[in-house]
Task: inverse folding
């Protein structure tokens, strides 16, 4: 039998060997798991999109567990440990032979066991099973590999290479929807920005998170749509509560009234949403065009506030509101034609006053067919008169020889309070690109009260078409008929675009 | 643990003394001397190959004197007959002179140490007579078998340079040699010592340090030396690796080797490893011992093909690669 000393030493070596091999196996499993996860992540990113965190963790755990299972070895026996000690300490196979021959009776075996016992006294388990330290070249290789994996993990790779064209198109549609949702969120945040209540702050914070989630594509689309709908309902109810708590309008200043008007705009739009809520519910933000909202559709408090604003608007001397009202009427009312223009102008003056917005800015809004006017109008939307709202560029219709807006301007400028309209026409500003559309030229009359019979608005209004100007110039000049075409071509040749 | 017998340790000490005694005559050549002793303790025969004048005969003489064994030398020539080696029946007159009897007259092979000098110069018939005695340990003349007294140890020499008029040993006969040792020329320092020792007034005297019985005891002890299983595995793998038909044979073996080692090669490896361990004061054969004795035990058992001969492939180089491969197989 081998000596107790040798037996004890072999047990110590065995325990140390198990610890070291287990630690190495765990490290190797983690590294292999990281490698596999990085490669899978990169492959999925290249082919489709970045996988979710759950998938990443699952891949890592599976790869690490598989590596661990494949690399796991049962604890070694004494013969293996003796051979290990022989090799590491150059004991010329004394221990292994002693362990293997311990049960045989022979003088040489006796000598061998005694020899092995003496050797075992100096056995150091740490020398037999040292902590594995990689060589510099090996460590550098490991570091390089780890760096490559980190770089691959963080590298911005192209995605969607394996998607079919139909899927790619669908993804493009989704992207567009997400952009529209982002716009809705931004708009909602802007609307509640003035309110500093804790509820609004929380809502704003939630909206910010939703915005970030959409931008990072960390939220599923359906979830984002549901959240946005919920936040809109929250904003709507909170704003309604705020309106109920407002003091009387006549006790407020102009700024407060303006604020109320803006909120009313929001509430009115969202109250009217069910009538056209199909688009909103479907997750698509359709631009809100002019919409007919009957008196019965609005809550009573809203009607009361509207009435008070109209009263303020109609007070003499409040030119700061009347002015823009005039110009707005010129802009919005000009989009209509026919007998309902007065009512529309009244509702406009009640719903969209903007104190202080006079002069050029207000005039720009008031210009029928101007850039803003063309943005606010949407071709094809049903107008109260049963026709369609015309684009600003096309305002020179047969029903309005002077252009758009001439019929609506007189209604708002007289300053008289008019009975509440049977229907409110609420306009929502449409987002678009400024200065899009054709350039219009004309003259804007902004001086209210002047003894001038000329209508306020644009007169004459026509697109700034260089061709028409040339034609008119040619017509004005006394040019022999035979040379007119030559002169026209001459002036056309002078144009910078030709 | 019971107290071991000290006689074995004493015998190990005597081997060390024997090496020193032989070293008085044989300068340098320590490896050659150790390998010769290994073969002697393992009970094998040695084929010494080297140029003339390198001390082959001196080595055998010194060994015989140091072990106190009977020694005979046979100079092999083309006209040497088997009876000249084995002995023959002769008609002899009785001691009283009245009658005559046919009596077997033993040849020079009846000695403990036999030096077969230039064995490749004898005819195959004579060579085979010697080799039969080497393998069987007996000599049969006229239907009567005569056992050779143990220990029986043959050291044959051959000159690798002069091949004209020689009869190269067949592979089957070469395989019967336990070791094939290459006698290399001495270095400058060793040569200087040789000159000084052999040209002086007094020749070195070798004392006998080991008796025949002690040598036999050592030969029995060698066979009792424990060997771990992985050491045996190494020897087996090494022998297997010399066969070109072996699945795990290297590309060089498949290309240059015609025949690999016989099972005698594996036996020689283990037995020599045991003897080497005992000579070195250990009581177990180790991997190191197998690796050390592999070249002399296997080099004459590997037969190279014509391509290897043409390209000058050395068997020892081939064995070196095989040994390195085999060592990797047993690393834990």
Result:
């Amino acid at each position: 039998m081998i000596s107790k000393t040798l037996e004890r030493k072999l047990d110590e070596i065995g325990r140390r060997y198990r610890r070291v091999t287990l630690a190495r196996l765990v490290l190797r499993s983690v590294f292999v798991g990281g490698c596999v996860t990085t490669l899978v992540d990169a492959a999925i990113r290249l082919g489709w999109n970045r996988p979710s965190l759950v998938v990443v963790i699952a891949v890592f755990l599976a790869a690490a567990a598989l590596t661990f299972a494949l690399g796991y070895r049962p604890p070694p026996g004494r013969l293996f440990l003796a051979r290990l000690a022989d090799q590491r300490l150059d004991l010329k196979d004394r221990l292994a032979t002693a362990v293997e021959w311990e049960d045989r009776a022979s003088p040489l075996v006796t000598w061998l066991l005694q020899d092995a016992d003496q050797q075992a006294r100096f056995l150091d388990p740490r020398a037999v099973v040292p902590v594995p330290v990689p060589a510099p070249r090996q460590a550098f290789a490991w570091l390089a590999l780890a760096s490559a994996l980190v770089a691959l993990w963080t590298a911005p790779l192209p995605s969607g290479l394996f998607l079919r064209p139909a899927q790619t198109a669908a993804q493009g549609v989704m992207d567009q929807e997400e952009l529209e949702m982002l716009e809705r969120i931004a708009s909602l945040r802007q609307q509640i920005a003035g309110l500093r209540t804790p509820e609004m702050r929380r809502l704003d914070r939630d909206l910010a998170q939703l915005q970030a989630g959409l931008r990072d594509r960390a939220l599923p689309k359906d979830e984002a749509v549901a959240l946005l709908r919920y936040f809109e309902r929250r904003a709507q109810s909170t704003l309604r509560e705020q309106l109920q708590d407002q003091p009387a309008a006549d006790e407020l200043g102009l700024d407060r009234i303006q604020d109320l008007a803006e909120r009313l705009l929001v509430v009115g739009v969202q109250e009217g949403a069910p009538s056209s809520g199909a688009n909103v519910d479907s997750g698509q933000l359709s631009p809100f065009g002019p919409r007919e909202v009957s008196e019965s559709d609005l809550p009573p408090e809203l009607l009361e506030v509207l009435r008070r604003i109209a009263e303020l608007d109609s007070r003499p001397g409040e030119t700061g509101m009347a002015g823009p009202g005039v110009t707005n009427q010129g802009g919005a009312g000009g989009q209509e034609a026919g007998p309902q223009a007065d009512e529309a102008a009244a509702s406009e003056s009640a719903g969209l006053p903007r104190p202080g917005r006079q002069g050029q800015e207000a005039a720009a809004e008031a210009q029928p067919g101007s850039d803003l006017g063309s943005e606010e109008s949407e071709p094809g939307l049903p107008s109260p008169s049963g026709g369609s709202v015309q684009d600003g560029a096309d305002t020179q219709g047969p029903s309005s020889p002077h252009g758009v807006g001439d019929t609506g301007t007189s209604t708002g400028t007289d300053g008289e309070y008019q009975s509440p309209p049977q229907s409110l026409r609420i306009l929502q500003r449409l987002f678009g690109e400024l200065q899009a559309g054709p350039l219009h030229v004309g003259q804007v009359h902004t001086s209210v009260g002047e003894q001038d019979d000329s209508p306020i608005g644009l007169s004459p209004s026509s697109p700034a078409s260089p061709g028409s100007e040339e034609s008119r110039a040619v017509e004005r000049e006394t040019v022999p008929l035979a040379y007119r075409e030559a002169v026209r071509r001459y002036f056309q040749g002078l144009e910078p675009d030709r | 643990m019971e107290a071991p017998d000290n006689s074995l340790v004493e015998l190990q000490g005597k081997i060390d003394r024997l090496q020193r005694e032989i070293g008085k005559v044989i300068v340098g050549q320590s490896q050659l001397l150790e390998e010769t002793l290994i073969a002697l303790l393992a009970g094998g025969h040695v084929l010494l190959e080297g140029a003339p004048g390198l001390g082959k005969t001196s080595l055998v003489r010194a060994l015989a004197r140091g072990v106190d064994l009977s020694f005979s030398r046979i100079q092999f020539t083309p006209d040497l007959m088997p009876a000249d080696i084995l002995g023959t029946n002769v008609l002899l007159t009785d001691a009283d002179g009245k009658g005559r009897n046919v009596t077997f007259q033993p040849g020079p092979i009846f000695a403990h140490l036999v030096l077969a000098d230039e064995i490749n110069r004898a005819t195959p018939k004579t060579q085979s007579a010697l080799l039969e005695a080497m393998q069987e340990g007996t000599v049969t003349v006229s239907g009567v078998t005569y056992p050779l007294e143990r220990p029986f140890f043959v050291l044959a020499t051959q000159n690798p340079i002069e091949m004209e008029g020689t009869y190269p040993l067949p592979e089957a006969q070469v395989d019967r040699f336990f070791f094939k040792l290459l006698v290399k020329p001495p270095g400058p320092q060793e040569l200087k010592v040789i000159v000084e020792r052999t040209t002086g007034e007094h020749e070195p005297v070798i004392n006998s340090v080991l008796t025949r019985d002690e040598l036999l005891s050592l030969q029995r002890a060698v066979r009792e030396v424990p060997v771990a299983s992985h050491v045996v595995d190494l020897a087996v793998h090494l022998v297997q690796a010399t066969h070109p038909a072996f699945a795990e044979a290297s590309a060089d073996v498949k290309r240059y080797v015609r025949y690999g080692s016989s099972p005698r090669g594996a036996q020689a490896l283990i037995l020599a490893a045991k003897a080497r361990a005992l000579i070195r004061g250990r009581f177990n054969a180790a991997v190191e011992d197998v690796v050390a004795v592999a070249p002399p035990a296997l080099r004459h058992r590997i037969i190279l093909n014509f391509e290897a001969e043409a390209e000058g492939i050395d068997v020892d180089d081939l064995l070196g690669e095989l040994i390195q491969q085999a060592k990797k197989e047993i690393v834990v």
